[in-house]
Amino acid sequence: MYSIDLTGKTALITGVSNKRSIAWAIAQILHQAGARLAFTYRRERVKAKIEGLASELSGSLFLECDVQNDEQLKAVFTEIDSKFGRLDCLVHSVAFAPPAELGGLFVNTSRDGFKTALDISAYSLIPMAKHALPLMDKAGGGSLIGISYIAAERAVPAYNVMGTAKAALEQIIRQLAFELGPMNIRVNGISAGPIETVSARGVPGFTDFFSMYEQRAPLKRNVTQEEVAKSALYLLSDLGSGVTGEIIFVDSGFHIVGY
């Protein structure tokens, strides 16, 4: 019999903004498995929300981190090393594009908007992996996951530059998996179906996609944050020990449908 026991292991969770966040669902299930948690936040008002949510997750660490700030990124991992001495799991669930870049025509994407979306939503995984490497090496290996969406490989109206960012994120996941594999560090992604998060509601026409998934997906329903979290737990635990460089779809099978 196999069980998932993360007692003594440490996980860094990025991208929690409220109780509907995919990252929050992942944090909860990792805590239930015994992991110690560290959370990042960008602003003080977000910190207060995360601390409120995590009040029952004893021993959690809360760290300020603007992923566009190299010094803050470095400081996060220095503090984790000081507090826990190791890092076993990293959840990259950070994504942002200026609201003006979502909706309308993709050809109107601004240069600055493109840079911002790619920097925050994709590039940020690279320095995170760089700083995580020595801490995971201490632990004898580790696992990283990034949260993607089907727009990485399909044209999705209004998603625009965020689709470009997700495509870049998936390539980064594969490249990191290739380079970090010899160090027993696995890197995977989860392509989640549409979920009613704050960021999703910022995409024009989101409710239409939510309904379309229910109609067309083989399971005839949408997925929940908990279902995404359970797949994350598999990938972050020893049950996924032979899996790296993969993008696992958790979307009720929508991605296989051709109509």
Question: What is the topology?
Answer:
Elements: E1 10-13, H1 22-32, E2 36-41, H2 44-53, E3 61-64, H3 70-84, E4 89-92, H4 111-123, H5 125-138, E5 142-148, H6 161-180, E6 185-192, H7 198-201, H8 206-216, H9 225-236, E7 247-250
Parallel strand pairs: 1-2, 1-4, 2-3, 4-5, 5-6, 6-7
Keyphrases for this structure?
42% helix; 259 residues
Cα radius of gyration in angstroms: 17 Å
Number of helices: 9
Sheet-strand content, in percent, reads: 5-15%
N- to C-terminal distance: 41 Å
Mind describing the biggest β-sheet?
7 strands, parallel
Q: Would you identify the regions where 5 or more consecutive residues have pLDDT less than 50?
A: none
Mean pLDDT across residues: 93
